[in-house]
Specification:
Layout lengths: L1 E8 L3 H12 L4 E5 L5 H6 L1 H18 L15 H25 L3 E4 L2 E5 L2 E4 L2 E10 L3 E3 L12 E2 L1 H4 L8 E5 L3 H13 L2 E6 L10 H14 L2 E4 L3 E7 L2 E6 L4 E4 L1 E4 L3 E3 L13 E2 L2 E2 L12 E3 L10 H15 L14 E3 L4 E6 L2 H6 L4 E7 L4 H6 L4 E7 L4 E8 L6 H9 L4 H4 L10 H11 L9
Parallel strand pairs: 1-2, 1-6, 2-3, 6-19, 8-15, 9-10, 9-15, 10-11
Antiparallel strand pairs: 4-5, 5-6, 7-16, 12-13, 13-14, 17-18, 20-21, 21-24, 22-23, 23-24
Helix pairs in contact: 1-8, 3-4, 3-6
This protein binds flavin-adenine dinucleotide (FAD).
The site of flavin-adenine dinucleotide has 36 residues, from helix 1, strand 2, helix 2, helix 3 and helix 8.
Length: about 450
Amino acid sequence: MAQFDLVILGGGSGGYACALRSAQLGLSVALIEADKLGGTCLHRGCIPTKALLHSGEIADGARDASHFGVNAQFLSMDMPAVNSYKDGVIARLHKGLQGLVKSRNITFIEGHGKLISKDTVEVNGEKYTGKNVVLATGSYAKTLPGLEIDGKKIITSDHATKLDYVPKSVIVLGGGVIGCEFASVWKSFGAEVTIIEGLSHLVALEDESSSKQLERAFRKRGINFELGVRFQSAAVNGDSVTVTLEDGKTFSADVLLVSVGRGPVSANLGYEEQGISMDRGYVLVDDKCRTNVPGVWAVGDLIPTLQLAHVGFGEGILVAEEIAGLNPRPINYDGVPRVTYSEPEVASVGLTTAVAKERGFDVVELNYDLAGNGKAQILRTAGSIKLVSQKNGPVLGIHMVGSRVGELLAEAQLIFNWEASADDVAPLIHAHPTLSEAMGEAHMALAGKPLHAHG
Ligand SMILES: Cc1cc2nc3c(=O)[nH]c(=O)nc-3n(C[C@H](O)[C@H](O)[C@H](O)COP(=O)(O)OP(=O)(O)OC[C@H]3O[C@@H](n4cnc5c(N)ncnc54)[C@H](O)[C@@H]3O)c2cc1C
């Protein structure tokens, strides 16, 4: 039986980050992966979707070229070429990651693992024992009762990232982050897109003002959506799929993407049998990612925290450092940056106005319209930066909409996490002309000294 300081089950963002940091700290590590090192994010999540979105951006650039005085024409998408670009990015990153794991002397084990005791995982009949076991088995794309995924007409994001044609029309069931990103991609690729969302807004977890701006921008792009109405049924008839909503409306399209959320991968893996506390399949942990069973930890999409790759990285690193005795600070999940990479992007960190008020803060708000920003005019993007601040206190939340605003989160997260106030940020000179200048302008306006802002 092989013995390690850590046995990690699952080689996605959470698992591999924990493995790399643990090895860096001198611990011996076994990393078990049933599929490909890198997990959902690298092979069917963050990276492929962002490559597809970038191809879409180029397509839109060709369509809009005349606005910028460039003679170019959008002809069509070449999906084999799009996929080979996307797969090339994935392959390079996969290779790099494999090299990293190897160079840190991590024992990489290919195969499906099961927790057979509190400190042992079995893979292909072999037993791997750890002073610590880290569960990092991730998540899968959920569907709704009675809605069967056939992988052809009714698909999930797993299939959508590999599609080798552009559907003429698509229905996207679920207007969360993943649904909005695919809606954006397919619209850019030339498809007719309709989003169906049961809640009253797209990206409903974001500040309401961001959702409304995204809705306006999507409407302008010709992306259709039905909000606040629930799905009833779907039927495939020959080449098309028809969706019926609870209000009786029907929609037909070539393809139905089901993007109604992701659930934890935890069934039949021995977790319950070992007495690990769980809730609806999620493994429950404390603020250091410890389960109730001593020596067993859990990270990433398997636990009920934000389902984001960088959260998995952070949790993996936290566990490694805790095991190594570094006593790291627990993660402040409010301070985690969030981006929907559609066109336009929606990006935020900190609290929405509604949550800040719920928590009893005396809130002031400032909305800086990107219309006043030179770079935004050059890019021809619309949007805004909204600040939610405590009255005479620190900034509590930053909410942005517009092309490329995800890149502004680097500064936004420092402002939030270092508890800066508008008066702290206003004197910092931002480079002109950049989108980041809008961040400076927003804080100047909130500090009572607007420069390129009216009122
Ligand atoms: C379409 C899409 C787009 C996304 N875009 C973004 C984005 O832009 N930014 C962002 O931050 N996040 C994004 N995410 C979310 C991100 O992919 C996840 O939060 C992240 O992958 C979670 O990491 P994880 O390690 O918890 O799980 P996973 O990445 O799912 O990894 C779990 C791994 O465990 C393995 N495994 C499971 N069971 C076993 C077993 N029994 N034995 C061995 N191995 C096993 C799996 O094969 C898998 O490789 C996106 C997700 C999707 C689906």
